[in-house]
Specification:
Its main location: cytoplasm. There is one protein chain. Helix content is 57%, strand content 9%. It contains 21 helices and eight strands. 45% of the residues are buried. Helix 7 links the parallel strand 2 and strand 3. It is of the alpha/beta class and 440 residues long. An eight-stranded mixed β-sheet has the order 3-2-4-1-5-6-7-8, sandwiched between helices. The structure holds guanosine-5'-diphosphate and magnesium ion (MG). The site of magnesium ion has 5 residues, from helix 6. The site of guanosine-5'-diphosphate has 18 residues, from helix 6.
């Protein structure tokens, strides 16, 4: 995938004290191919590469001590920029109700996303929305929306399949005004492709409802096609934003990059599952990291550059390679990490760790460092070096010695083991772990 390719490319620069213009050109060729493979639109890729190359051959990189990191950083920053830099909030009407019209091709996720958006609004601002069923072509579509309405306990306005959708919307809006609903979400019909009949109907609904938002729902799995769909809908309806669905699949998010660049319209939300809670506000920086497949690598690099003692990084790298990371190193590490931030936050930034289920339980508060130290110091030297010795009775003895509950001892040992595993992974990984991160 894209991330593996990029990491491989970047690793070529590892250890180079100076990068030449030829190095940068070569890298950019790889980045270009990688983006195209991830379904990023051709023109978008071209412009993107041009921008990154200009920045990269500037003194910014060539004279830097950490050229590979600098290039990754530039690629990341530019990706973020292409996707709009910051999250964009919903347009709210000055006077309720705020009217949101969902549009998109059949199967893109309009109905599901309407439900998700209701759930989001309920959770975020205790909203009292009304859903309008304006997809009259399939009886199942109305039932689907009714089911979602029941789940969320919000009213769904429908008039079956025999009434013109524009009329349904008109009546639905009247009801919403009477009932003082603060949001109205209009679920419209889709087709397999953009056609004039569909667009006429959507335009008529738009003219009547005067929505504050026309959210185009796009299936991220459709790759390049997603961009064309977005262009088409935007030309015809002048959409106000995009919901990119099905990002829980193995898509890398290339569509996100192209859609924003081609339509100029912000992606406002992403769908990441079939459940009604699976909707997130779109953050360009996070998507850039996702596309690069690097967790929050940039932040980690920056933190590391600031806080990390190079000497210690070197020692740690060696330990990782020798596989001799023990509890003494663990305490050293924690002391370093305490300067950088909470443990689980740091670990999440490391490539391949972001989705590690083990991390869900890793709650290391740097304030607990003193307790952890007490636990480690209650171990014998041998125990510190050979954690496998730590059977239940030894753990009990250590807990008593440190004056900490046994669960804490167990948790620490678990975290230590996670860290050990991570170290092993990193020392085998493409980027050659810490060494790469620390710019050695
Ligand atoms: P519509 O025709 O545009 O209204 O699309 P639907 O809302 O009926 O969704 C079509 C299918 O996609 C359904 O099976 C949904 O459960 C599924 N779906 C929608 N959004 C997502 C998502 O973000 N992730 C996943 N995995 N499935 C989704
Ligand atoms: Mg639908």
């Amino acid at each position: 995938g894209l991330s593996e390719r990029l990491q491989k490319t970047f690793s070529k620069l590892r250890g180079k004290g100076k990068v030449t213009e030829a190095d940068v050109r070569e890298m950019m060729r790889e980045v270009r191919l990688a983006l195209l493979e991830a379904d990023v639109n051709f023109d978008v890729t071209k412009t993107f590469i041009k921008t990154v190359r200009e920045r990269a051959v500037g003194s910014e990189v060539l004279e830097s001590l950490t050229p590979a990191q600098q290039v990754i950083k530039i690629v990341n920053e530019e990706l973020t920029k292409v996707m709009g830099t910051t999250a964009v909030a919903l347009n709210n009407a000055p006077k309720i109700p705020t009217i949101i019209m969902m549009v998109g091709l059949q199967g893109a996720g309009k109905t599901t996303s309407a439900g998700k958006l209701v759930h989001y609004l309920q959770t975020e601002q205790k909203a009292r929305p009304l859903l309008i069923a304006a997809d009259v072509y399939r009886p199942a579509a109305i039932e689907q929306l009714q089911t979602i309405g029941q789940q969320l306990q919000v009213p769904v306005y429908d008039e079956g399949t025999q009434v013109d959708p524009v009329t349904i919307v008109e009546h639905g809006l009247t009801q919403a005004r009477e009932q003082k609903n603060d949001y109205v979400l209009i679920d419209t019909a889709g087709r397999l492709e953009i056609d004039t009949q569909l667009m006429d109907e959507l335009r008529r609904i738009k003219d009547l409802a005067q929505p504050n938002e026309i959210l185009l729902v796009v299936d991220s799995m459709t790759g390049q096609a997603a961009t064309h769909v977005a262009e088409g809908f935007n030309e015809q309806l002048d959409i106000t934003g995009v919901i990119l669905t099905k990002l829980d699949g193995d898509t890398r998010g290339g569509a996100a990059l192209s859609i924003r660049a081609v339509t100029g319209k912000p992606i406002k939300f992403i769908g990441s599952g079939e459940k009604l809670a699976a909707l997130e506000v779109f953050h360009p920086d996070r998507m850039a990291n996702r596309i690069l497949g690097m967790g929050d690598m940039m932040t980690l690099i920056e933190k590391a550059e600031k806080d990390y003692d190079a000497q210690q990084a070197e020692t740690l790298t060696r330990k990782m390679q020798e596989n001799s990371f023990d509890f003494n190193d663990f305490v050293d590490q924690l002391q370093q990490v305490q300067k950088m931030g909470p443990m689980d936050e740091i670990m999440k930034m490391i490539p391949g760790m972001a989705n590690n289920p083990a991390l869900k339980n890793a709650q290391m508060d740097p304030q607990d460092l003193e307790h952890l130290k007490a636990i480690v110091y209650s171990m014998t030297l041998q125990e510190r070096q050979e954690p496998d010795l730590l059977n239940p009775s030894r753990r009990r003895r250590i807990a008593a010695g440190a004056g900490r509950p046994i669960v804490e001892v167990n948790r620490m040992i678990k975290q230590f083991k996670q860290m050990q595993t991570m170290m092993q992974k990193m020392s085998k990984g493409n980027l050659n772990g810490m060494e790469q991160m620390m710019g050695n």
